[in-house]
Amino acid sequence: MSASQESVGAIIAAAGRSQRMGGGDKLFAVVGGGPLLAHTLSAFDLCPSVERVVLVLSLENIERGRELVAEAGFGKVAAVCQGGERRQDSVCNGLEALASCQWVVVHDGARPLVTAELIERGLEAAKETGAAIAALPIGDTVKEVEPAGIIGHTLSRGRLWAAQTPQVFRYDILREAHQRAQGEATDDAALVEKLGYQVRVFEGSPWNIKVTTAADLVLVEALLAQGRAG
């Protein structure tokens, strides 16, 4: 998919509070010689199809984010805007700042090992139904556990996939999903599914991890040193 044929925008959702990082801010933690968030933004800056990017940050990180963008020279970042209380609120704010385009790529700012190739594959996969997400088949046995800590059910893993980002949508579909959203959703695909749209899955990458703890930073550092990425 060529950006010259169909305009593509991206929203980097990075307004989380890093609650499991022991007081540190994962987005600006230095890994591989630069801030974690810079690695994420670099992949989108290098992706041929992506025309513009909106970076969504918490209020306390907005100025810091603008400084990072300016210092690194990320020319595709069209706006840095404030996130909301929930992730879906942050993405909704990003949609407003992005303005209309044909396709929207939504990605977690805390997944720094995404690549331009993975983004392009997502755009290609989304052509079929207007929505596609990166995901990986689950290899472990999955247990549904009751509140008391007792196993209630063992799920068949044959049809279970772990969702990742990037997630790619037609702009009009994603905007409608957010406008009609009821309740909370942990990713954008869930909102789109509720409207009855089909969401295609394309294979993600085991390296495309989401940093949530200090141990994840150590893993990302090691993967970057080995030249691994999503």
The CATH superfamily turns out to be Spore Coat Polysaccharide Biosynthesis Protein SpsA, Chain A
Percentage of residues assigned to helices: 25-40%
In angstroms, what separates the terminal alpha carbons? 19 Å
Number of domains: 1
Q: Give the CATH architecture.
A: Alpha-Beta Complex
Strand content: 25-35%
Task: Write down the CATH class.
Answer: Alpha Beta
What is the number of strand segments?
Answer: 11
What is the succession of H and E elements?
EEEHEHEHEHEEEEHHEH
User: For the CA atoms, what is the radius of gyration?
Assistant: 17 Å
Which stretches are low in confidence, meaning pLDDT under 50 for 5 or more residues running? none
Summed up, the helix count is 7
**Named CATH topology:** Spore Coat Polysaccharide Biosynthesis Protein SpsA, Chain A
Strand order of the largest sheet: 5-4-1-6-10-7-11
Largest sheet report: 7 strands, mixed
The structural class is alpha/beta
Indicate the overall shape: globular
Give the overall pLDDT as a whole number.
93
